[in-house]
Amino acid sequence: MRLICCASLPPATISSVPIYDFAIANEELANKYTERYYPCCGKCICLGCAFSFDQNGNDDNCPFCNSNRDEKTDVDQGEEVMKRVEVNDAGAICTLAVHYQQGRAGFQQDQIKAFDLFNRAAELGSIRAHFSLAGVYHEGGDLKKAKFHFEAAAMAGDEHARTILGSMEGRSGNMERATKHWKIAASAGCFRAMHCLITFFEKGVVSRESIDSTLNAYNNSCVEMRSEARDAYIRDIIDGIL
Asked: CA 12, CA 19: separation in Å to the nearest integer?
């Protein structure tokens, strides 16, 4: 889940919002993964909601089972993750994969184990695992497998993955398909997709009519995703507090 909200923009119309006025203040969040997984109970929450929960005096507790997270060492949290992995919790498996990938939470860095775990989590339907596998394959030059996993993530609602699919189609010369991907992602509130459409509008590939209709949906989606807690979280991200 990628938390992308807009600034104080009205719903777009051809007359009220110029084509460059689109949530640019929140570009900082375009590549941030903003979901927190709690291995104690295997549930997730967006970081805007987690931020609000913390600010209400629950900084060290799980919002679901109320266990004290501050008392947990890396070893304790690793054991919690392993327990969830044993029952095929896709979120836990993906979390363990990230631990191995980055060498954190007491786990020795091991890219092979991380890759195997991402595959296991993807088979169980983890969107994040599909996206991570796509990145690995893309970096390794296997664009066919990268595209497969980006498509799986996109179909499950990952608009960043859909935006990358658009870029892959664009590099292959399939601008009609690229534009379609970007319009879908932008309409759901994806900053990167909206940026791609603006860029190709400047190159004469995307029509002004297409930009206006997508911008309207983009700004409306951003407004719908806003909340005081998310805005506060965004401000702290931008200010470098979090």
From this structure: 9
